[in-house]
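Tutorial, part two.
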Amino acid sequence: MTSKNTPRSFSAPLYILAFIITIVIFGIGVYVGTLFDKSNLSRISSDVESTLQRLESAQILLFLDDSASFCPVYKTELEKLERDTELIGHRLNLLSDKGATDIELKKQYFVLEAQGYLLSKKVNERCNVNDTLVLYFYSNKNCEKCAAQGEDLLRSRDQLSNSIDKRIKFYSFDGDLGSAVADALKQKHYVYEYPTIVVNDKVYRDYQDVDTLVKIFSGQSAISSGPRTDG
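Running the prediction step on this input gives:
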């Protein structure tokens, strides 16, 4: 009869088998996750292309007709395009947070944002719209204040959502990504540091807190950094 105090013997092969099964399950999970991320990136790329085509169609119509008769159409279509663009950006950020980043797709998204920005400027001019257009330049490489600046931009817009009769639109660009369209906008506005905000063509360099942003967006503060051509 075996003593109750006799230690049980464990088979080493069972441990090895359990370890192998764990590794296989983990590998399958990683593989499936990678496929899922690639599938999402592919769908986002398709959505970017589709939205770009719609933007270009709206721009063509805008440039072909100088009258304001189509303004209701422009504004309605622009609102739809901006909602779609914002959703695409949100999906890209979610994937980026998971480590799934496609640099070329992000550059393509910046082209989409720039097209939306230019179309918004034309609609503002043509249709007597008073929307505030904000370019936000940041860097994911070396910018301690950029994350906080992005959050404060959203907070300031939320604070003003019910107190002013105009919309505040954000167009964000990673200035260190190597995007040609972002570089062109940086050159136009003399952006040489991050974060930098351009509000209706007025440049505000370095971090701006919520209170300052609220004043800027509501028209209470007209003090900007101004252009600097030696940067």
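Residues 9 and 62 are 81 Å apart (CA to CA). In part three we will examine how such features are distributed along the chain.
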